[in-house]
Design goal:
binds 2-acetamido-2-deoxy-beta-D-glucopyranose; Extracellular Endonuclease, Chain A; 25 strands; membrane; Rossmann fold; single chain; twelve-stranded mixed sheet; globular; serine hydrolase activity; alpha+beta
Length: 637
């Protein structure tokens, strides 16, 4: 019996081994065939992602696919992913997606390095325009087709970006890389300035990715309807784009640093050469929706995300993981993560004393700055940060954007200005290094050290990035309110505009004097929302104090800490709610007795921008989201 068992055992092992080997060789065979297909017919390249999908099981090997020199540039140039997969043409130093219908590329993707720009090996004087015979003749543009069109043969991948070899420079003269551009004031004006700017970025940062392409944008007719209208010329009906775009990705030199991105859109017409390039800046997502290219990399590594939900269990796990003796002060380290409309799910870290991290972060002092300070024992990716950050991102999205009525440069500028107005710098302060310690009273003693960290950060932004203190609001929760207050105190004589204190921590702080806790002198305006009497503070410590549901036991709250956290749900909702939370003046005369003044005046709690108010207010809410009930009905109580 044992012998049979052993034989079966051996057979089984042999079967498994031969199956694995067979699968492995078969996989190599598929890979080899894939290489042949790609080499023979560049148009087959668009199925690459599908083939990759089926081969994901052997993921590591697929990355090494490199049968022919010609395609070895791909992983380098397309590092951030393909904007699209249609009709790809792969040249030695850039990649094109060709639009057969318009006879103009959809997009051209280049990777600029200093070696390809500051080089004399390739020169445009040696090159000639030529048709790309790889394109079927019906869709191919020939050198004669541009004759008498009145347009310049404009390079999408500029020849000056590809000078490391003559053949690279020659490639940019393929007519697939050429698009009709207005000469005077565009191709030889602003567009040229933009190309020079890109090369300058490359000089400074070493590695720049550029995606360039045409746009055919709609325009309003006399009848108030919108039309896409563009000229075509020649027997091949080559399309003349209404605009051109460039999306620029600058790689950070820092280890692990995230790339910085900018997008420009220029109308294809004679422009005043003195126009500031910045006035052509545009939201990357607008370019994406107007072209058929994905310009934003799908999967950038994130410095910080707020996507995952934290659960009660994970809270408990963390609690016990940090059940440690208290740390010494030199471990105090705050980190700062910036979210903006262009990267709503993927923050960029700003480091004090690292100027490049500011430049590359996309921080823009023209946008209002909002600083989020979480509470004790909550993580920087917890629900307070996530919910408020998302509310601000929704607020930013609600602003008008788009290029819909733009064939006029003036209207582009005004579009851009409204875009600017809608965006925020949302900065998340991560002080978990300290805040995760369970020794509450020791953490309380460190409030001023943490506040100094935060104040120094703001001064640094002011010094390096022109931050204006009056554009700053701080939004704190629980102990974060007192940190915000301490930062405000330590910034004096300067003042930030507003502190929104969402249920400031009560234990220990109740008995401290105004210099040791949040107080109304810490900002121009301090608004407090009180939602819990156990964990929160019940004194009026700001200019305006709001007591939703009399400031304790919030509706439908049964878990410990629920009322305490409800404050930030109310605040987040107040940012985007149409109804809003409205309070009426009140006075607390004892633990259970309130006087509600029946004044005509109702004042709004929370919201953007902050509206300075004065006094104590009662607010009624719903027991389920949306919590806002709008203006109150006097008869309700
Ligand atoms: C690579 O492809 C090019 C063009 O398709 C061809 O001329 C060349 O011989 C190929 N090289 C190898 C090593 O297969
Ligand atoms: C570049 O193009 C010119 C003109 O067509 C040609 O004479 C030259 O040999 C080409 N150089 C290379 C390296 O392909
Ligand atoms: C939350 O942040 C901590 C560091 O602060 C990190 O270790 C953890 O992975 C993050 N969790 C999620 C879900 O992103
Ligand atoms: C996170 O929570 C929200 C509501 O609380 C829910 O809609 C969402 O699906 C959750 N996301 C994950 C990844 O669990
Ligand atoms: C706010 O109200 C208090 C008393 O109700 C008053 O002393 C103070 O001057 C008021 N401040 C402002 C700015 O109205």
């Amino acid at each position: 019996m044992a012998g049979i068992g052993r034989t079966l055992h051996c057979m089984l092992i042999t079967a498994v081994i031969s199956f694995t080997l067979g699968a492995y060789y078969q996989h190599y065979d598929i890979l080899r065939q894939l290489c042949y297909v790609i080499n023979d017919d560049p148009y087959a390249f668009h199925i690459r992602d599908k083939l990759y999908g089926t081969l994901r099981f052997f993921k590591n090997n697929v990355g090494r696919l490199k049968a022919n020199e010609t395609y070895s540039c791909l992983p380098r140039i397309m590092k951030y992913g393909f904007p699209g997969m249609e009709d790809l043409r792969v040249y030695d130093d850039f990649v094109i997606s060709y639009d057969r219908r318009n006879r103009v590329a959809r997009w051209v993707y280049e990777h600029l390095q200093t070696s390809s720009i500051f080089n004399t090996a390739g020169s445009r004087r040696m090159a000639e325009y030529k048709a790309d015979l790889g394109i079927p003749s019906d869709f191919r543009v020939d050198t004669t087709d541009y004759k008498d069109s009145g347009y310049d043969k404009g390079h999408l991948a500029a020849s000056g970006n590809h000078k490391s070899k003559q053949s690279h420079c020659n490639d940019t003269f393929y007519l697939t890389n050429i698009a009709p551009q207005v000469g005077e004031g565009f191709n030889r004006g602003c567009w040229q300035k933009l190309e020079a700017y890109v090369r300058d970025l490359c000089k400074r940062y070493g590695s720049v990715f550029v995606c360039t392409g045409p746009l055919y944008l709609p325009r309003k007719s006399d009848t108030d309807k919108w039309y896409v209208e563009y000229e075509v010329f020649g027997p091949k009906t080559i399309a003349v784009p209404t605009h051109y775009f460039k999306v620029i990705t600058v790689e950070s030199k820092l280890p692990g640093g995230l790339p910085y991105m900018e997008a420009y859109v220029m109308p294809n017409k004679e422009l005043d050469e003195k126009t500031d390039l910045r006035s052509f800046l545009c939201d990357i997502r607008v370019v994406e929706s107007a072209s058929d290219a994905y310009a934003l990399p799908a999967s950038l590594a994130c410095d910080h995300t707020l996507k995952a939900n934290t659960t009660y269990i994970s809270f408990l796990k963390k609690f016990f993981r940090h059940f440690l003796p208290f740390l010494s002060n030199d471990r105090v380290r705050m980190r700062f993560f910036l979210y903006k409309r262009d990267f709503p799910d993927c923050a960029r870290e700003i480091r004090i004393d690292d100027d490049a991290s500011i430049q590359l972060s996309g921080f823009n002092a023209e946008h209002p700055t909002r600083i989020l300070v979480h509470g004790w024992l909550t993580s920087s990716n917890g629900s307070f940060n996530r919910i408020i950050k998302n509310a601000y991102m929704n607020l930013a999205k609600m602003q008008p954007n788009g290029f819909t009525d733009s064939n006029e440069i003036l209207s582009i500028e005004s579009e851009i200005n409204t875009n600017l107005a809608g965006d925020f710098n949302i900065i998340i302060v991560d002080w978990t290094a300290i805040g995760m310690n369970i020794n509450y009273f020791s953490v309380v003693n460190m409030i001023d050290i943490l506040g100094r960290n935060l104040a120094e950060f703001l001064l640094y932004l002011q010094f390096k990035a022109n931050l204006h203190m009056l554009d700053v609001y701080m939004i704190g929760h629980s102990m974060g309110c007192h940190i915000a207050g301490s930062a405000g105190r330590q910034l004096r004589p300067q003042r930030i505009h507003t502190i929104f204190a969402l249920d400031p921590a009560g234990p220990k702080f109740r008995n401290l004097n105004a210099n040791q806790r949040l107080s109304e002198s810490d900002a121009v305006y301090v608004e407090v929302i009180h939602t819990s009497d156990i964990l929160g503070i019940q004194q009026d410590i700001g200019h305006a104090s709001f007591y939703p549901n009399f400031g304790k036991g919030q509706k439908n709250c049964y878990k410990f800490g629920c009322s305490h956290g409800r404050a930030y749900h109310y605040f987040a909702e107040s940012l985007t709610s149409e109804l809003g939370f409205w309070g009426i003046k009140c006075e607390k005369i004892s633990e259970h007795a309130w006087i509600l003044y029946n004044e005509e005046e109702e004042v709004r709690m929370g919201g953007e921008p902050s509206m300075p108010k004065n006094g104590t207010f009662y607010v009624k809410t719903n027991d389920m989201p949306p919590y806002a009930v709008g203006r109150m009905k006097r008869t309700a109580y």
